[in-house]
Specification:
17 helices, transmembrane helix, mainly alpha
Length: 323
C-alpha cells in the first residue's frame, strides 16, 4: 500500500479530530478565518466533484438489485428530517434564523460521510452509497421544494434561486467529476487517494469559516443550538431505524437507512444559508457537521461490536449431530 493511500485512510479515520481542530481555529482566529466564507460554495463544489469522480455504475446496481430498500431510504431521507426540523422549530419556538438553519439541514440530501459510517457499522454499505448518490442527484429539485414548503413561514424563500444554487454547487461538480472519470480515466484513477484528503480539508475550512463568522452568536446561543441540532440528528437516526424496521427490512439495511437519514450534507445547508440568508442561519449546519461526526461513529462502534458478539456466539455454539 502506498504512503499516500495510508495517509488518505488515516485522514478519513480521524475525520472528527480535524473537524474539532477546524472549530477551535475558527474560534481562535475569527478575523482571519472568516474571510474564507465567500469561497464556501467553491469548497463544497470540490467535495461534490470528488463524489462525481468516484461514482461508478456499481453504485446503481443496488437500485436494481434491491429497489425497495433504496426507494424507502430516499423517501425517508426527504421526509423524516425536514418534518422533524419543522416540528422542532415550531415546538421550541426558535428564532427565524435558527429555525431556517435547522430546516435547511433537514431538507438536504445525505452526506458522503454516511457511507464510511455504514461500513464501520457493518451496515449495507452498497445500499448506503446508492441512497446517498440518488438523493444527491435529486437534490436540485427536491431540496429547494422542501425548503420552500417548510421555511416560507419564517422568511421569503425563492425556489428558483435555491434551485440554481444547488445545481451550481452540487449537480455541475458531480457531472464534471463523472466526465473526468469517463474520458480521463488515468487522471481519475490517480486522484482516488488524494481526493478524500482534499475533501476533508474543504469540509474543515467550511466548518472553520462558519464558526469564525458567527463566534458571537454561537457563544450567545451555544447550548440551545447544540441541543437542537443533537435532538434533530438523534431523531433522524432513531426514526429512520424504526421505520425501516416497521417496513420489514433486514438488519444491515435498517442500519444503513438509519445512518443515511440521520447524517445530512450539512455543508450544502451552510452554503445555501451563506449565499441567501442571514449568516446565523448557517450555524446549525456547521454544528450539525460536528455533531453527526460524533453520533455517527458512536453508533457505528455500538453496532459493529453487536455484530462481533453475535458472530462469536454463532461460532461458539455447539454443533448438533442429527444423524
Amino acid at each position: 500500500m502506498s504512503n499516500l493511500k495510508k495517509f488518505s485512510q488515516f485522514i478519513n479515520k480521524t475525520f472528527v479530530v480535524w473537524m474539532l481542530i477546524a472549530a477551535i481555529l475558527g474560534f481562535s482566529f475569527p478575523g482571519t478565518i472568516a474571510q474564507i466564507a465567500p469561497y464556501i460554495p467553491y469548497l463544497l463544489g470540490i467535495v461534490m466533484f470528488g463524489m462525481g469522480i468516484t461514482i461508478s455504475t456499481n453504485d446503481f446496481k443496488e437500485v436494481f438489485k434491491s429497489p425497495k430498500s433504496v426507494i424507502i431510504g430516499v423517501i425517508l431521507q426527504y421526509t423524516v428530517m425536514p418534518v422533524t426540523a419543522y416540528l422542532i422549530a415550531k415546538g421550541l419556538n426558535l428564532s427565524p434564523d435558527i429555525a431556517l438553519g435547522v430546516i435547511l439541514v433537514g431538507c438536504c440530501p445525505g452526506g458522503t460521510a454516511s457511507n464510511v459510517i455504514s461500513y464501520l457499522a457493518k451496515a449495507n454499505t452498497a445500499l448506503s452509497v446508492s441512497i446517498t448518490t440518488l438523493s444527491t442527484l435529486l437534490a436540485p429539485i427536491v431540496t429547494p421544494s422542501l425548503i420552500f414548503l417548510f421555511a416560507r413561514e419564517w422568511l421569503q424563500v425563492s425556489f428558483m434561486e435555491m434551485f440554481i444554487s444547488v445545481v451550481q454547487v452540487v449537480l455541475i461538480p458531480i457531472i464534471l467529476g463523472v466526465i473526468v472519470q469517463k474520458f480521463f480515466r488515468p487522471v481519475a484513477e490517480k486522484s482516488v487517494d488524494i481526493l478524500p484528503i482534499i475533501s476533508v480539508i474543504a469540509i474543515s475550512l467550511i466548518l472553520s469559516s462558519v464558526v469564525a463568522g458567527n463566534k458571537t452568536q454561537i457563544i450567545a446561543t451555544g447550548l440551545l443550538l447544540f441541543g437542537v441540532v443533537l435532538l434533530h440528528n438523534v431523531c433522524g437516526l432513531t426514526i429512520g431505524y424504526l421505520l425501516a424496521k416497521a417496513l420489514g427490512l433486514g438488519r444491515p439495511d435498517k442500519r444503513a437507512i438509519s445512518i443515511e437519514v440521520g447524517m445530512q450534507n450539512s455543508g450544502l445547508a451552510v452554503s445555501l444559508a451563506t449565499a441567501h440568508f442571514n449568516p446565523l442561519s448557517a450555524v446549525p449546519g456547521a454544528i450539525f457537521s460536528f455533531i453527526h461526526l460524533l453520533t455517527g461513529p458512536s453508533i457505528a462502534i455500538f453496532w459493529s461490536n453487536q455484530t462481533k458478539r453475535y458472530q462469536k456466539r454463532v461460532e461458539s455454539a455447539p454443533v448438533t449431530d442429527n444423524l
